[in-house]
Design brief:
The protein is α/β, with parallel strands linked by helices. The protein is built from 19 helices and 22 strands. Strand 11 and strand 12 form a beta hairpin. It binds xanthosine-5'-monophosphate. The site of xanthosine-5'-monophosphate has 24 residues, from strand 18.
Length: 515
C-alpha cells in the first residue's frame, strides 16, 4: 500500500528521547486526554532488581535530599513537630503547617532541629572560677545526664573544656574548675560538618568539640555520643542535614506577614520553606520566591501549587528550588468541583517534570495518593517525591486528639486547609485561598472536613507504602527513582480494568495493612 507522507506534528519536535513513556503521554495529549492515578498502570519489565535492593533516595529540592521520597503535608491535621520528627527519622521530611502562629511554627521547627544532640548550638557552659563541688551540685539540681562543658572566663571567652573523667579523678571538691579543665583545646571552625567533627574527635580522643566563629566566639559544640551514632551509621535511615540535625521544612504564604514569618523560620534553621498556596502561578508567589532567595539564599524554596508546565517554568525562573504539583487531586479537595479548574494528577506531574528536565529542580507530586501503587506511578511519571495528607493523617504523630466515637470507632479529624473549619479557625487558611479579608459567613470553602480511622504509628504506614513502592520498582526493573523515570511506560486502563485491579466478587474481605 502506498504510504501517505507523514505530516510533522509540531509537538513531536520536543521529543523526550530520554524517557520511555513519552509516546504514551504524547498520544494522550493528542487526543486531549489528561489522566489521573486510576486511569493508568505501569507496564512490567524484565527485572534483575529485587524489591529490597531498590534505592529510594530522593530529592525534594535542589539541596534537600531524602532517604525515601515521602513528605508529610503542611496541614493542621497532619504535620507539626512530632510528625516532622517521625518523618525525618524514617528518611523523609515533614513540612510544618502555617496555621500555627509564626512563633509557634518556628518553635516547632526548633523542636525538630534540637531532637538530636550531635551539634548543640547553645551549649551549657560553666565558669573557670566555680568549684568542682558547685558544678556537681548544679548538675544534680538540673538533672543533667552529662558532665562535659565548655569553660568560660569572666569575659565569657572559652578558656578550657572539662569532661566526666576530669571530675572522676578529682579528689578535692574545693578545687576550681580552672585547676581540673583541659586548657589545650582542640576546636573546629564554623561550618564543620559532622563527619569532619567525628574524625577530629576520634583522632584527638575528645568527647566534645567546640566550634568557634571568626571572632573566636563559641557557636556550639559537637558531642561524641550522638556524632558517633550518626556517622557510624547506627541510624542509617535518618534524614540529616550536614550539621547532623534532623531535616525539617515549614510552610509560608505570600505578602509582608509571610516575609516576617520567613525571618523567624530562618532563625529557627529550617532546611526548606514551602510557599504553600492554591495557585502558585501568581504574582504574589513569584514575588515571595524572589524575596526568599534574595534574603535567605541558603534556604531552599519549594513553590506551588501548580499543574501546568508553563507555571513550572515561571516559578523556576523566579528562583524556586523545587516545585509542588497538584491542583485539586487531594482527598479533601473540592477546588476542581467548586472552581472548575485543575489537571488530573498523572498528566500534571508528567507535563511539569518534563518542562523542568535538565534544570535540576525536582517536582513533588502533592495530593491524591490513595495506595502505595500511586506513589510508583507518580514517580514514574516524573515526580521526585510525593506529598501525603490523608495517608499520614489519623496517626499517633498527627496533631489532634483521638476521638472515641459511640460506635466504638477511634478516629481523628482530617480536614482540608481550605475547609470551612480550617478557614474559620485560621487566617493562613483563608489566605491560601485568597479570602484573607472575607467575613466568616461569606467564606467559599475549597475543601472538606472529615473523620479518619485512627491508624497507630506513622512508621507502620510508611513501612507499607515503601514496601509497595519497592515492589513496583522491582516489577518495572528500576534500581532507583531516576531509573524508574527513564524506563517506566504506562498503559491506559478502562473502568473495567480498574474494577479488575481491585479485589472483587468476594464477601467478608479481611482488612489488609496496605489496602
Ligand atoms: P491527600 O490526597 O494526600 O492530599 O489527602 C493532600 C493535599 O491536598 C491539598 N489540600 C487541599 N486542596 N482544598 C484543596 O483543594 C483544601 O482544603 C486542601 N487542603 C489541603 C494540599 O496540597 C495537601 O498536601
Amino acid at each position: 500500500m502506498p504510504q501517505l507522507p507523514q505530516k510533522e506534528n509540531p509537538k513531536r519536535k520536543v521529543k523526550d528521547t530520554q524517557r520511555n513513556c513519552y509516546g504514551f503521554f504524547d498520544k494522550m495529549a493528542e487526543s486531549g486526554l489528561a489522566l489521573g492515578y486510576n486511569d493508568v498502570r505501569l507496564k512490567t519489565n524484565y527485572s534483575s532488581i529485587l524489591p529490597k535492593d531498590a534505592d529510594l533516595a530522593a530529592q525534594f529540592s535542589r539541596n534537600v535530599s531524602l532517604n525515601m521520597p515521602i513528605i508529610s503535608a503542611p496541614m493542621d491535621t497532619v504535620t507539626e513537630a512530632e510528625m516532622a520528627i517521625a518523618m525525618a527519622q524514617l528518611g523523609g521530611l515533614g513540612i510544618i503547617h502555617k496555621n500555627l502562629s509564626p512563633e509557634n511554627q518556628a518553635s516547632a521547627v526548633r523542636k525538630v532541629k534540637h531532637k538530636l544532640n550531635a551539634f548543640i548550638p547553645d551549649p551549657i557552659c560553666i565558669h573557670a572560677s566555680q568549684t568542682v563541688k558547685e558544678v556537681l551540685e548544679f548538675v544534680k539540681m538540673k538533672k543533667y545526664t552529662f558532665l562535659s562543658f565548655p569553660v568560660l572566663d569572666n569575659s565569657d571567652n572559652v578558656v578550657g573544656i572539662v569532661s566526666s573523667s576530669d571530675f572522676k579523678f578529682c579528689m578535692d571538691g574545693t578545687k576550681k574548675i580552672s585547676d581540673i579543665m583541659a586548657k589545650k583545646m582542640i576546636s573546629a571552625p564554623i561550618g564543620t560538618d559532622i563527619s569532619a567533627a567525628y574524625k577530629t574527635m576520634m583522632t584527638n580522643r575528645i568527647k566534645i568539640l567546640p566550634v568557634f566563629n571568626r571572632q573566636k566566639k563559641l557557636t556550639g559544640i559537637f558531642t561524641l555520643a550522638d556524632v558517633k551514632r550518626i556517622v557510624a551509621g547506627l541510624s542509617p535511615d535518618y534524614n540529616l542535614a550536614p550539621d547532623g540535625t534532623l531535616r525539617v521544612g515549614a510552610a509560608i504564604g505570600v505578602g509582608e506577614q509571610a516575609k516576617q514569618r520567613m525571618e523567624l523560620l530562618a532563625n529557627a534553621k529550617t532546611d526548606v520553606v514551602v510557599i504553600d498556596t492554591a495557585h502558585g502561578d501568581s504574582a504574589g508567589v513569584i514575588d515571595m520566591v524572589k524575596h526568599c532567595k534574595r534574603h535567605h539564599p541558603n534556604i531552599d524554596v519549594v513553590a506551588g501549587n501548580i499543574s501546568e508546565p508553563e507555571s513550572a517554568k515561571r516559578l523556576t525562573e523566579a528562583g524556586a528550588d523545587g516545585i509542588k504539583v497538584g491542583q485539586g487531586p487531594g482527598s479533601i479537595c473540592t477546588t476542581r468541583i467548586i472552581a472548575g479548574v485543575g489537571c488530573p494528577q498523572v498528566t500534571a506531574v508528567y507535563n511539569c517534570s518534563k518542562a523542568l528536565r535538565g534544570s535540576g529542580v525536582p517536582v513533588c507530586a502533592d495530593g491524591g495518593i490513595e495506595y502505595s501503587g500511586d506513589i510508583t506511578i507518580a514517580l514514574a511519571a516524573g515526580a521526585n517525591t510525593v506529598m501525603l495528607g490523608k495517608l499520614l493523617a489519623g496517626t499517633t504523630e498527627s496533631p489532634g486528639e483521638v476521638i472515641f466515637r459511640q460506635d466504638k470507632k477511634q478516629v481523628k479529624v482530617y480536614r482540608g486547609m481550605g475547609s470551612l473549619g480550617a478557614m474559620r479557625d485560621n487566617k493562613a487558611s483563608r489566605e491560601r485561598y485568597g479570602q484573607a479579608s472575607s467575613p466568616e459567613d461569606k467564606l467559599i470553602p475549597e475543601g472538606i472536613e472529615s473523620e479518619i480511622d485512627f491508624k497507630g504509628d506513622v512508621s507502620n504506614i510508611v513501612h507499607q507504602l515503601l514496601g509497595g513502592l519497592r515492589s513496583g520498582m522491582g516489577y518495572c526493573g528500576a534500581k532507583n527513582i531516576a531509573d524508574l523515570q527513564k524506563t517506566a511506560d504506562f498503559r491506559r486502563i478502562t473502568l473495567a480494568g480498574l474494577k479488575e485491579s481491585h479485589p472483587h466478587g468476594l464477601d467478608q474481605v479481611k482488612k489488609a495493612p496496605n489496602y
